[in-house]
Write a structure and sequence with these properties.
Layout: H1 6-11, H2 25-44, H3 48-79
């Protein structure tokens, strides 16, 4: 595992996303990816079970982020036609 999940990163590459974001999401995503790389380096030095907990947390957090954005997009599509 390394970096922000590709599925998550793709969410920030939507056409004209700048028109819809309150913060610069791509910049925040890149910052998260850089920090995540450091977390993975730290995790490699930990015993197996502790490393697995960190990796599982990041994976689940990525899944949560993707599902949250998908839900928001569906909600927006239904309420702002």
């Amino acid at each position: 595992m390394s970096g922000v999940d590709g599925q998550v990163t793709d969410l920030y590459k939507l056409p004209d996303i700048e028109q819809y974001e309150d913060l610069h999401l791509l910049t925040l995503s890149e910052s998260c990816a850089a920090l995540e790389e450091q977390v993975y380096k730290i995790a490699k030095a930990l015993p197996g079970r502790k490393r697995q907990v960190i990796e599982a947390y990041i994976s689940i957090r990525n899944d949560l982020e993707v599902e949250t954005v998908k839900t928001a997009l569906r909600w927006g599509k239904c309420h702002y036609k």
